[in-house]
Description:
Low-confidence stretches: none
Largest sheet: 6 strands, mixed
Number of helices: 13
Structural class: alpha+beta
Oligomer: single chain
Order of helices and strands: HEEHEEEHHEHEEHEEHEHHHHHH
Shape: elongated
Mean pLDDT: 88
Amino acid sequence: MSNRLFQGIVHQMKDAIDRTIGVIDETSVVIACSELGKIGEVNESINSETLSSTAPFVINGYTYKSFGSSAKYDYAVFVQGTDEYAQKYAQLLSVSFASIKQYYDEKYDRSNFIKNVILDNILPGDIYLKARELHFNSEVSRVCLLIKIVSKTDVSAYDIVQNIFPDKTKDFVININEEEIALVKEVKADTESRDLEKLASSIADTLSSEFYTHCVVGIGTTVTGIKDLARSFKEAQSALEVAKVFDTERTIVSYDNLGIARLIYQLPTTLCKMFLKEVFKRGSIESLDQETLFTIQRFFENNLNVSETSRKLFVHRNTLVYRLEKIKKLTGLDLREFEDAIVFKVALMVKKYLNASPTKY
Length: 361
């Protein structure tokens, strides 16, 4: 519990209660007080046994009332005086502080709990026990988004994202490290991928346009049940990793829409090398120069249409046909044939994957 929070509440109440009021902790130290000079003082007349009292008690002209968790009392409020009003003030303050403490602890513990769940730092059997203890709704649908800061300013991206999602009971913003922020968002069960992409775009746009902080956002799949949040988080991580290899231009990457890139990313590198060797029996893919690779890329983008590709490349149709024949001669693959085009497209992606030097296998 933050002493600053206790002090803030005492400060707000001091005008309403025309007496010295404050809070002591279980070590008998004054941690908050309307008279700032008393903060830090030790009241040796109070010990753990005194604090365990359920009824108000009086010591040295002050009325005390203990409060804390259901298991034990860790704190006590004190009010100047020993009269009936001092007792009533102490009881009211103890109820107020206990409620605020419970809210603060639950909020703090819930965020830590969610962080431990998504990072797999909690045993599966303990997840539901802890969830019940924190009154956590386990049956709603949630999704994990991973916000990776690419270029940052002095502004805290974590604070900005927290301000975008102020409902701390439903949405959890978690600092993973200096560059990554996880958002665990409660959503409707029928939320579609495009709705999540719009949400991610709004986060990226806010950070970029208002705070000049650029980021990429990975989106996991929607899950029901707390245990599966770890999977959604790993999917968001995978989405960013796959995009970094295969599609560096994308700002928003959804695990649901990775397509064949996800399949290739999960392959062992030894298998990928065997595949390239098998496809390029005549000559290595390295034998193709940048101009040829650029031509191939445009040919794929224009759905293997020779006329449209030549128009986009500003070259004569026969020039493009000549280049395609040259590729066929070098590799044995005719890109005008659908099956050969598929093989070549996959081979290019596999090559890009290997160039990224994956270390998983």
